[in-house]
Design a protein that fits this description.
The chain has about 180 residues and is α+β, with helices and mostly antiparallel strands. It is about 35% helix and about 35% strand. It has 6 helices and 8 strands, in the order E-E-H-H-H-E-E-E-H-E-H-E-E-H. It has an 8-stranded mixed β-sheet, with helices on both faces. Helix 1 packs across helix 3. It is globular, with a radius of gyration of 15 Å. The chain starts with a strand and ends with a helix.
């Protein structure tokens, strides 16, 4: 999956270490909108940190344990998607997304994630695709619902974010439900 046309002037393609400067600029634009939900939004504050994060995902892709993609709109990086985890032995992966406020409302995330799920289930044999979000992230929940995912439950105080313990919802979609 090198690049996928999402329509409306948008394209989904891999985010790689050589995109570090572009990724940093995108992160600075997106930060006010995503910092409450996306951990890297507050930690990627210079080119080297951007390169390190992108290198980590390049290493994950090489190891077949994760992947990161960007969503470019009219040639400008406006968001992205990620296989935060990708476990082929268990047949389980987790998909995540983020988008600048200016790019919302065009169905980009929905179309991008559909391509990712098609690939994960159809090409790689994933049996379960997970979506994790904070219970108060209503936009994220809306995407999970549009994709046909079901809420499995809430893990109470399951992780630390910005110095406080937070709950996490787990949504899922099974391969048989996707087909």
């Amino acid at each position: 999956m090198f690049g996928v046309d999402l329509g409306d002037g948008a394209r989904l393609r891999p985010l790689e270490p050589w995109h570090a400067e572009e990724f940093l600029a995108h992160g600075e634009r997106a930060r006010p909108h995503i910092a409450n939900w996306i951990p890297w939004a507050t930690t990627v504050t210079d080119v080297e940190k951007a390169r390190t994060l992108l290198r980590d995902y390049a290493d994950r892709q090489a190891a077949d344990t994760g992947r990161m993609y960007g969503i470019w709109v009219d040639g400008v990086l406006r968001g992205g998607t990620v296989f935060r985890t990708f476990d082929t032995a268990m047949g389980v992966c987790e998909v995540g997304v983020w988008l600048e406020a200016e790019a919302e409302g065009r169905g980009l995330v929905n179309r991008a994630v559909r391509h990712m799920i098609d690939w994960a289930v159809g090409e790689r044999g994933m049996v379960r695709v997970e979506w994790r979000c904070a219970p108060d992230n209503l936009r994220s929940q809306a995407v999970a619902k549009r994709l046909g995912m079901r809420l499995d439950g809430t893990l109470r105080q399951s992780y630390v974010f910005h110095g406080e313990r937070r709950d996490e919802q787990i949504w899922s979609l099974l391969a048989d439900e996707w087909r």
